[in-house]
Amino acid sequence: MILRLKTTFAFSLVGLFLLTSGVNAQEQTKEEKEAQDAERLVERANERYESFSFSPAIDVYQKVLERGFVSADILKKLGNAYYFNSQYDKAHGMYSRLIEEFPEETEAQHYFRCAQTCKTLGDYDRAEQLMLLYARKIEANENLELSQEEYMTQIEKNSGRYTLGNFPYNSRYSDFAPAYYKKGLLFASDRDTGNLARYRHSWNNHDFLDLYQIDSLTDLTGTEERAPKLSGAINTRLHESTSVLSKDEQTLYFTRNNLKDGRRGKDSLGIIRLKLYRALWQNENWETIEELSLNSDEFSTAHPALSPDGKVMIFASDRPGGYGASDLYKTEIKGDGSFGEVVNLGPTINTPGRETFPFISADSVLYFASDGHYGLGGLDLFATRYTDILNQAVVNLGRPVNGPQDDFSFIFDSQEQTGYFASNRGNDAANDDIFPLVQDRALDLNCYAFGLVRDRNTQRLLAGATVEVINEENEVIRTTKTDLRGVYRIKLLCGRGNFIRVSMPEYQSAETFVANPVMGDNNFNFDLEPEIIVVEQDPLEPADIGKLLALNTIYFDLNKYDIRPDAEIEIQKIVAVMERFPSLKIRVVSHTDSRGNDDYNLWLSQKRADATVEYIAEQGIARDRLIGQGKGEQEIMNQCQNAVPCSRADHQLNRRSEFLIFE
């Protein structure tokens, strides 16, 4: 390890013993002793850090920094220790110093976490800069497509849909993980209820968690003392936290530290991991507690949630092969109580950050906490459709449930439109509180295409046009029609490619592809090309097909009759119409400006008309359907008559061609 003093000198601890010249023996011995003391402190801190004893590790690392020694490794670990204890302001200081002083040793995860701490502090501009640096480190990914302005706009769009209340059973300790339990609630708390704080968790120096019970959701006038511990054999001297009750209320799944035969179970590094357990309701109590086969001593499995039918479990885990620090997984609960294959929920849900605390409501919405999706800082709450996760997008629930601190463990009763969540907002960010909520505005998790359908030539709004959504397998999955205002709105597949096709009798169909629609409305207007041109012929004023097709004017350069590249594009449209309607015959009329004598201009205009006819004929149109006529300067469109001073642009307006239908 390389330690750096606050002076400009950098020393290897081994190298200190090899310095002999230029320093007297007394000064060398003092520096050696300081370095040796720092090394011992760092080794002790590392041991505690590696065993997830973050709170004592923080104390030791800080002592090393206060003595003037610093390294990239110390800043990384101290930043992480603060980050995982939700002390984001202090984590920000460590990560910022790491990025500034050790840019070459800063890893992608540290840019990411520093960005999260910036959001917590309200510095969204700096957060966006750090996320760009993070993207470069990992060579970018799909979760970095939005700018700060775009994702803040999306968050604000979903904000203001909940009203929050107070939870009278909160204590001055951490209270979180509410779970519906019979007619009441369960929740986790580390409140000290008589154990004299003999058991404290070294991660955050708090008491170990137990499950507590509230008998009735209608009684929210209680106090902390009126929430007793859950009876039975579930609570132990280690952590018990997140829980979920089965549909028949006979099985309770919950999270607990690795506990084997009443003793702590550890992995190969001596770390006590989290595991999932279940208890059966027997003899009016929770008994027959067993560890689930989903667990391992080598990684954590925690925070269970059940599908509405109770046949699938969603949970969080840091098992190998995931996308980030912790991912969400699912498994089937079979009829005999065994479990099926464990399946990762995929990159729509999981990110390089933390996805955790899942909950599935009765109307099949998956809620979860994440610091990897776009948020306001720390863990934010998100939602998506559980029934078709791969084809859905993830939406941030917005303020007020989300804020700059950690917001998590959200549960929701879709029938009553009420719920609960936990947050460490407030003056004491080290402790969590539970907040009840009422949903005032329904959450729409769908993606839509929305827009107008018009006649391309006249811009007339088209009522009754058919709008179809076609998936990437070329299957029509939804159909609607435009209303009397020519407006349509149709649901898309979120998180997947969609073709939108618009058709109407007497018009050519139009189609566009939407690669990855956002939640809410995606605006697409369609201008349909008429298949049949209806013209009321007036012998005195023939119809100009160029105007009917809304062509850009075909101009010629001064004194030239070459077909310009920009004119070719427009003439090709004339060719396409004549190919579609074989009986159509056109007179090409060419005009010049007033510069030059009249005879010359008449000759030049005829050359231009002939050049245009020749170009159309070369595209396969029969010459007997075309007539070329030059009119010189006989029909000037503006004030630029002979001897009238005009700009080059004004003169160019008169050098034009018309395409008049004569049969």
From TrEMBL:
Signal peptide start-end: 1-25
Keyword Signal set for record: yes
One Pfam family of this chain: PD40
Intracellular or extracellular location(s): Cell outer membrane
Primary location group: membrane
Record InterPro entries: 6-blade_b-propeller_TolB-like, Bact_OuterMem_StrucFunc, CarboxyPept-like_regulatory, OMP_bac, OmpA-like, OmpA-like_sf, TPR-like_helical_dom_sf, TPR_rpt
Superkingdom, taxonomy of origin: Bacteria
Name of this chain's protein: Flagellar motor protein MotB
